[in-house]
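Translate sequence into structure tokens.
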Amino acid sequence: MLNRSVSWKLGIIITLLIATAVVGDRLLSHPVSKPNSSSSQYFDYLVVVVLENMNLNETYGSSCIGNCSYVTQLADTYAMAGNYSGVAHRSVPNYLTLTSGGNYAYEPFASSCVVIGANGCITSARNVVDAIEETGRTWKVYVENYGGYCRGVLPFSYYADFYYNPTRCLHIVDANPGAHQLLYSVPSALFSDLNSDSAPNFMWLNPDECDQGYHACNSTATTTCTTMFAQCVSQANEYLSLVVPRILDSRIFQTRNAALFITWDEGGGRTASTRQVCPGTGATYPTCNDVIPAIFVGRNVRHGYRNDQSLSHYSFVKTLEAAWNLKIAWNLTSMPPINILAMTDFFNTSSLASLSQDPLLSYWVLSDVVRGCDKH
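Result follows.
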């Protein structure tokens, strides 16, 4: 018979072997996906959602036109900018600035680029995807109701290294395959990636024109927002209320250093006749502050935070540059001098201590081993 000391030691050895086997099985069954470059103190994964044609005073708080309840709650709960501006009217220059850091508030981009590739509407300038790839990070664009025509995707197909590059087109995917609809589409492809071990670091979601609030819609028809602006505001609010909770509940957002950025491309100065801010076509910022909502959401975002400094779409790119050490080709030709501020103060970097260990490994041990103990 073994004495008590030997039995105790054997028990420890057996327990350790069992634990090692359990963890090993988990590692083989669920390979750990780590960011492809050094971790950032701000975010390792970023989801971007851009909506359309609404100023802050039309989409937030008591001045809302329509139903803004979810947008207001989201902004008040997490981190919002109170003085964040679009850079131009119409849409294209805003999208190009958001994805490059360059100024495109001039012709043909300011008003003649509705059709991508027409009228010289292609630029060979660098964009944020070029810079992201150089750091070893990954990216994907999710387009609602995508028809598979890569050259028609705003804003990325305005860049020559997308428009003429079929390989890059493979990273532009249908957000809601097999479930196309006019209103309140479900970006199931994005949700699937966010709940997997292979989520890209940079995820850009293109809602369709109804979910963006660009058109007033029902299940079968669309109407211009000029006469139904309150409905357009309410549609965007409802869409976010359906999509954002599922993003935040995803595996990546629950176990990784992930953030969500929501903004609008420009204000409704050309759309809402009663509340024009920076009306007309062409450059707005910095001459005119076309104030639009801009909200960061995530576990490591400062809660209940509001920043009223002068920010803009350039600030979003500056934040990417700071977070991931990107090489941005700032092209500010024909602009007055501006001080581009990053939005890094929107993040509570001290909270990263809770994510210092591998969160997925902790999750597996707690969920699988402890649940296993509950069975006995």
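Note: The CA atoms of residues 89 and 282 lie 5 Å apart.
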